[in-house]
Amino acid sequence: MKPTREDFPIVYTMTTRWNDNDHYGHMNNATYFEYIDTAVNGWLIERTGADIRELAAIGIVASTGCDYYAEIGFPATIEVGLATTRIGTSSITYQLGVFRAGDPKLRALARFVHVYVDADTRRPVPIPDGIRAAVESLPKLEG
Known about the structure:
The chain has 143 residues and is of the alpha+beta class.
């Protein structure tokens, strides 16, 4: 069953850009990945107050996927709802709902996996405490 807008009480809000539209007049499917990446990392920066790029352990994207249900285009304000489906020792699996602001209709549903690695060696390490505390505040949905 698809999640609903109510399943995503925590959102990161952005506006679409002129160049997001493709030849067919809607936001290109690859653009959704830019928005979900921005939503996760932007929310982490806001929530933790840390420059996550400068931590000893950094989150790298190991896997993504997206299902599309309805179009969005320019101009629009979008809300990316954040939730998790799994928080492991070194990885976090997010589930992200993409909505047009003010509209409960799910436009896209994405999966995004961060694996935390040592910033120098790129070997997996435990999720930093501040990151873990932040993501544990997100709703947990069935995966």
